[in-house]
Amino acid sequence: MGDLLKICGLDISFQYFVGKSPGFLKHQDSKYASVIDQETKCINHRSMSPWLWPDMLWKMSPTGIKEKISRMWLHNYVEKVVQDRIKELNAKLPEMVEDGLSKQGKFKLLDMLIVKQYLGDYTITDKYIRDELNGFIFAAHDTTASSLMFTLFLLAMYPEEQNKVIQEVDDVFGKDKDRCVTYQDLTNLKYLEFCLKESLRLYPPATVLSRKTENDFQLDKTGSRNCIGQNVALPMEKTIIA
Questions:
Q1: Cα(171)–Cα(188) distance, rounded to whole angstroms?
Q2: CA distances in angstroms from 20 to 38, 112, 150, 181, 216, listed in the order given
Q3: What SS3 state is found at 225?
Q4: What is the CA radius of gyration of the chain?
Q5: How confident is the prediction along the chain (242 residues), in pLDDT tens digits per residue?
Q6: Distance CA 238, CA 53 (A)
Q7: Which of 137, 141, 177, 236 could cross-link with 9 by S-S, CB 3.0 to 4.6 Å?
Q8: Is 223 left (phi over 0), alpha (psi -120 to 50) or beta?
Q9: Please, which residues have CB within 8 angstroms of residue 19's CB and are 6 or more apart in sequence?
């Protein structure tokens, strides 16, 4: 179930940010999905192995070498997606700028970045666009899958609440279970929303954030930081988890 939800999350994230359905869920043997899964496992392995936190040791380790190969493949894959979309939009960009800039909300992330680049924002390079897509898709699919997995787990633990969700879904969709979900449907699925939010409260998908210090700081005798209000989070290799 977990793997199925990850592929589903990839499908949703890719379509949301790129604007096209890649069909990962339909073709579950997708290399992109398998490489993303390998990348995730490598990153998790490093985060749980303090001896691999120094870059030098990580790059020499078997897992680090495997992660480098998978990351290069992902970069090349998304780079092709970006270049293909730029070619598709080349003839449409002037019209998009003239008619659509005031309605950028209807643009997908990829299209918005390409338009910004076309307008002369030289900070938005092809590499920048590729890295933004990689980051958003990678982070979104994993957190989405994790949240859904914990929600299903909790609903299985509490059958009475599960039955309430099923009844609500039946009331909203009736016998037509195959039609597309609309925004109006989402506003009517109140109890399902409560369950999702409670699951996020109990099992947040991102429980630890690693940041890098900009200034030196000291710990006082009680072990707490004596520089409240400053950006003093510890770097990854020295993170303190309370």
A1: 9
A2: 23, 14, 28, 18, 46
A3: strand
A4: 22
A5: 667 888 888 888 888 888 877 877 777 667 888 888 899 899 889 988 999 999 999 999 999 999 999 999 999 999 998 998 888 888 777 777 666 554 544 668 888 888 888 888 888 888 999 999 888 888 888 888 889 999 999 999 999 999 999 999 999 998 887 888 888 888 999 999 999 999 999 998 877 777 777 888 777 665 554 444 444 444 433 333 33
A6: 9
A7: 141
A8: left
A9: 85, 108, 110, 111
Q: Cβ(13)–Cβ(136) under 8 Å?
A: yes
CA distance 135 to 113: 14
193 Cβ neighbours under 8 A, 6+ residues apart: 186
**How far, in Å, are 18, 85, 92, 93 from residue 98 at the CA level?**
21, 19, 10, 9
* Tokens describing residue 164: 């309430």
Amino acid code (one letter) for 99: D
